[in-house]
């Protein structure tokens, strides 16, 4: 499926509100999760392009809920979420930077990086899942990373429109510097069941354009997740190297977008090179959007059909509003114009 064909609409939102738990679970499994996994696949391909890393060397795909193929009993879980993401592979002799409380080898990592759909909308987050067994020192390594690399992390958060989730109680004020929050977490043993970072929530309808932006932001924050993996392996963090590659990609992306805009403008200029100034003004007037309230009234008056060809949205056309008398000739934004 092409990325431009994926969206989440009001029907997807209402799915989280229904009382039939089996129906909800089946819809999440067969409709929501496949689309989330498609978004994740696009993001992973883009991560490869931007950072030249192979995600599946250290990570595997996770999804939640993780349904059993067959159910022996009626479903009793009321799912309020659907998520597709990545986490460290289940493997021995790999996560040597972490320790368990019982001194057994670490096979499972507690953190995940995923795209999440809720009743409120779509976002992505890095979470430290509810998982028992790791030592407090292992969790402290992750939290100290945020202190040591604060200057490098915060620009990524800004570009990704994601914010760190801070934790405080007695002994740490809400407006305290970030380092104090993280030090408080270490001191008080806050280690399980919290979110490290969460992006801005995209409300319904979640359109393809918004999804494309979210994937770009997901890719931008990837170096933070990669740093967690490096810590878990006991290897050197490569945040700065990945950030340099990200800078290169962002500059190329910006240059490409400016070039496309310039080409589009040039095309319009060449197309209208022989037109007189008055005609160009008329075309400019046509491109100015009519106020939304009037636009809907015009569509309603014309029975949601094109007055030129008679087609409607059911014919897979997009309706537009145009002026009869152009603004450049004194035309107004009233309904009869």
Question: What do these coordinates show?
Answer:
- This protein has 337 residues and is of the alpha+beta class.
- The protein folds into 2 domains: 3-252, 2-Layer Sandwich (BirA Bifunctional Protein, domain 2), CATH 3.30.930; 283-337, no CATH class.
- It contains 9 helices and 6 strands, in the order ααββββααβαβαααα.
- It has a 6-stranded antiparallel β-sheet.
- A hairpin with a 3-residue loop joins strand 3 and strand 4.
- It is globular, with a radius of gyration of 26 Å.
Question: How would you briefly describe this protein structure?
Answer:
The protein is built from 9 helices and 6 strands. It has 337 residues and is α+β, with helices and mostly antiparallel strands. It has 2 domains: 3-252, BirA Bifunctional Protein, domain 2 (2-Layer Sandwich); 283-337, no CATH class.
Which short descriptors sum up this protein?
alpha+beta, 6 strands, 337 residues
* The level-1 CATH class of the largest domain: Alpha Beta
Mean pLDDT: 84
Q: Low-confidence parts lasting 5 or more residues at pLDDT below 50?
A: 283-288
> How many structural domains?
2
Work out the number of β strands: 6
Main sheet overview: 6 strands, antiparallel
* β-strand amount: 5-15%
Shape: globular
* Helix proportion range: 40-55%
N/C terminus separation: 41 Å
CATH architecture of the largest domain: 2-Layer Sandwich
Computed over alpha carbons, the radius of gyration is: 26 Å
Superfamily (CATH H level) name of the largest domain: Protein of unknown function DUF1054
CATH fold name of the largest domain: BirA Bifunctional Protein, domain 2
What is the ordering of alpha helices and beta strands?
A: HHEEEEHHEHEHHHH
Multimeric state: single chain
- Count the DSSP helices: 9
**Derived structural class:** alpha+beta
